Amino acid sequence: xxxxxxxxxxxxxxxxxxxxxxxxxxxxxxxxxxxxxxxxxxxxxxxxxxxxxxxxxxxxxxxxxxxxxxxxxxxxxxxxxxxxxxxxxxxxxxxxxxxxxxxxxxxxxxxxxxxxxxxxxxxxxxxxxxxxxxxxxxxxxxxxxxxxxxxxxxxxxxxxxxxxxxxxxxxxxxxxxxxxxxxxxxxxxxxxxxxxxxxxxxxxxxxxxxxxxxxxxxxxxxxxxxxxxxxxxxxxxxxxxxxxxxxxxxxxxxxxxxxxxxxxxxxxxxxxxxxxxxxxxxxxxxxxxxxxxxxxxxxxxxxxxxxxxxxxxxxxxxxxxxxxxxxxxxxxxxxxxxxxxxxxxxxxxxxxxxxxxxxxxxxxxxxxxxxxxxxxxxxxxxxxxxxxxxxxxxxxxxxxxxxxxxxxxxxxxxxxxxxxxxxxxxxxxxxxxxxxxxxxxxxxxxxxxxxxxxxxxxxxxxxxxxxxxxxxxxxxxxxxxxxxxxxxxxxxxxxxxxxxxxxxx
Length: 505
What we know:
Elements: H1 13-44, H2 49-55, H3 60-63, H4 69-75, H5 78-98, H6 109-135, H7 141-168, H8 177-194, H9 211-220, H10 223-248, H11 251-255, H12 260-282, H13 296-303, H14 308-317, H15 320-335, H16 340-369, H17 371-395, H18 406-436, H19 443-472, H20 474-483, H21 492-503
Helix pairs in contact: 1-6, 1-7, 1-8, 1-15, 2-19, 4-19, 5-6, 5-8, 6-19, 7-8, 7-16, 7-18, 10-12, 12-13, 12-14, 12-19, 14-19, 14-21, 15-17, 15-19, 15-20, 16-17, 16-18, 17-18, 17-20, 19-20
């Protein structure tokens, strides 16, 4: 008598939440290194704010990740993707640990490694987000996003711990950057091994054979899609034209890249024009021919929904104020006289608890008040952190490393605490919204598309922010970013309608 087949049991809620926490720690750590460790290292090496702003161009990997998200979605095995990406990032950090001074000396190879690092991080994001959405039920979004935001921030703030290590293991004025990168490599290595132990993904129906070939055949017959794709890609890659034009002495590129606001307006305009054409094409009579395709099927599913263009613009704008300020916060701390150890201690000791608390409180509020109310209430609280940093920048004078006055330390610590807590609040509601409008059948690709739009605003805003600080100063620029948080509120009616339709599915 044959033994009955063993059916794999779905993971319990408690076990699943443990993996949500661990996976988003490993997703947040690379972003923390990118936004915290690298800018501080570059600024201490004498690199200017405008050049540090160019570092954000490497963040375009998070913007265009939807291009290879269908590959991750089609091959599945998300745990293998996550593990390989973490191990690859560990190798990059190990290489930087061997020669950290090269990053501030204008050599090319460290920047190539940083580009590889962001590509691997974006791939890890794709696999992690798709895996999590497939595992969670809609009633678990609030608690899961509370843990998600909290431990994502723990991962980012671990980069602050590496800053502390760089200061403690070095000498005054000469942090040990090699030790910081080496410790980061060890953390990535541990993540890469641990993720293989996560629960298996639920089964999914197979797609029709030959779907990819049929999709590309239809695409070649629809020039509107090709034009829309061209505009979107031009918007995504436009920031790279400024340094390229400077290298090749293209006068026309230099002429349109003189002001920080124009740097942001051109790529956003191109991308949004392409998105508008995509919406038109997705709602046309021939769009159904692409609906089953592994690449553009997710685009058609998203863009064919009524009111989607306004929702895409909302996603682009909701965290614009945060993104515009965020990349310049660490250079501000360096110019205010904080050492890497002090910056890390602020993040670890103050930001850690407050960011977790903000994520948990935000998730609790979203579960009870709903996603829509959570967006505008918690988004308003999120904007307040920009005012905190503006006040700090007006109050705190520039100083040499380690020479900041104790009373000014308290001002910056207070601004950091406010940013950490309110950032957790706003992000919890925002991610619940993205998950709420995503179809589980195409979770990996659809969520990659939506989060890419957010990453696009972050990369462009960070790029333009460096020049904005040089032209306006920290205080005036931080105050301006507070007002950038509010245009998204004009689009809340479209957001409400989209959420209502998603709940009816």
